[in-house]
């Protein structure tokens, strides 16, 4: 009976950024929508209750995290306020499998929510995942380009300083992490200016070209090749000249045969 009086509750943009404490009645209203039966949504939101994990299924929080983008798409961005608290609870869950599930889908959620809600509610979670375990970080790394392209340019540039951190992993033998970084950087070339590419992406690319694992090096050759193309078509030709000179100096004239071979592969 109480649902009719609260279905038309308006949750405007100012509510999204306030941290004031709600009364129980206001808290209940903030979870109300008219897209699906309210009882069904309430049942879904209760999946983050720790007692459910003990009595129903130990992985119920993981199932909840897996379904969240689908639920968000169904409810629409205007009803994100119904899911926001649940999402933040899942993002700070003690189980890394739950956080990993969210990390792999955060770029999909960003598309659903749009740039404004993404900047306010998803970017802080994304930043937390970047500092998490490798099992969680790989989720954001695999879709780094998909997420960053949805951000405004000034916010996107902030992540240039953090790309270097992806070279460091919990396990140094985790070469697939570095291979994925090289793949993503090829896509990231389209998102940044020639100056940013030369200043921030170039040193990482050169480091990957000298990786101990051949699979990482092979992808890195393509990365440097694409970098040369990108700088060549930019208005500032000095960057491509400097990059070419550095390739000659670092690889073509390298005292080791492997370095000279790297130069050949890049040219190829």
Automatic annotation (TrEMBL):
Top-rank taxon of the source lineage equals Eukaryota
The record's keywords, sorted A to Z, are:
Repeat
In the UniProt record, does the keyword Repeat occur?
yes
| InterPro entries for the chain | ARM-like, ARM-type_fold, PP2A_Regulatory_Subunit_A
According to its record, what are the GO cellular component terms?
Answer: cytoplasm
Output one GO MF annotation.
Answer: protein phosphatase regulator activity
Q: Does the keyword Repeat apply?
A: yes
Q: Where is this region: Disordered?
A: 1-31
Q: Which named protein is this?
A: PP4R1 phosphatase
Q: Which organism is it from?
A: Ramphastos sulfuratus
């Amino acid at each position: 009976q109480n649902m009719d009086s609260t279905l038309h509750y308006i949750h405007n943009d100012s509510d999204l950024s306030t941290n004031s404490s709600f009364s129980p009645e206001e808290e209940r209203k903030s979870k109300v929508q008219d897209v699906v039966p309210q009882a069904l949504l309430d049942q879904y939101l209760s999946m983050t209750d720790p007692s459910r994990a003990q009595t129903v299924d130990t992985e119920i929080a993981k199932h909840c995290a897996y379904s969240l983008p689908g639920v968000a798409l169904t409810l629409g961005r205007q009803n994100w306020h119904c899911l926001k608290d649940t999402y933040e609870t899942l993002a700070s869950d003690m189980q890394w499998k739950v956080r990993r599930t969210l990390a792999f889908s955060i770029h999909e959620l960003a598309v659903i929510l749009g740039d404004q809600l993404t900047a306010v509610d998803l970017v802080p979670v994304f930043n937390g995942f970047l500092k998490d375990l490798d099992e969680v970080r790989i989720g954001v790394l695999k879709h780094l380009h998909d997420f960053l392209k949805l951000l405004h340019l000034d916010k996107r540039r902030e992540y240039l300083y953090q790309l270097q951190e992806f070279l460091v992993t919990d396990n140094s033998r985790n070469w697939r992490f570095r291979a994925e970084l090289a793949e993503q950087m090829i896509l990231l070339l389209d998102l940044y200016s020639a100056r940013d590419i030369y200043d921030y992406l170039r040193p990482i690319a050169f480091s990957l070209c000298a990786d101990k694992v051949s699979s990482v090096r092979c992808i890195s050759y393509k990365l440097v090749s694409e970098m040369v193309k990108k700088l060549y078509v930019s208005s500032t030709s000095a960057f491509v000249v400097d990059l070419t000179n550095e390739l000659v100096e670092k690889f073509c004239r390298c005292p080791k045969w492997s370095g000279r071979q790297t130069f050949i592969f890049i040219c190829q």
